[in-house]
Design goal:
Elements lengths: L25 E3 L6 E5 L8 E4 L4 E8 L6 E2 L3 E3 L7 E3 L1 H5 L5
Antiparallel strand pairs: 1-2, 2-4, 3-4, 4-5, 6-7
The chain binds zinc ion (ZN).
């Protein structure tokens, strides 16, 4: 009995949130910021020139953290103290629940 785990409650990956890697062509705009379509070149007419301290290039639609779909805008959501997500209108209506 040297590990002291009396209740045997083994931690699994299920209770640790790990955000999926953004799809190709999608970047997180800053640490803890929203996902957005991003490219070095203007790959589509709706991409606009973007120049920031971290990223330079062309930015397209924002991308929802939850459904990974491009959308017109995303809203910050704080399901827990350590978790921050940017959700589209549809996902936000669901209350940030999967
Ligand atoms: Zn969504």
């Amino acid at each position: 009995m040297r590990n002291g785990l009396a209740h045997g409650n083994h931690r699994t990956n299920d209770d640790q949130y790990s955000p999926p890697m953004p799809p190709k062509g999608v970047r997180r705009m800053w640490e803890g910021g929203p996902l957005r379509q991003f490219s070095d070149t203007q790959v589509s007419s709706h991409y606009v020139g973007y120049s920031g301290p971290i990223l330079k290039g062309y930015a397209g639609s924002y991308v929802c953290d939850r459904c990974q779909r491009p959308c017109a805008g995303v809203y910050p959501s704080h399901p827990s103290e350590t978790q921050r997500e940017w959700l589209c209108g549809g996902c936000r209506k669901l209350g940030g629940k999967p």
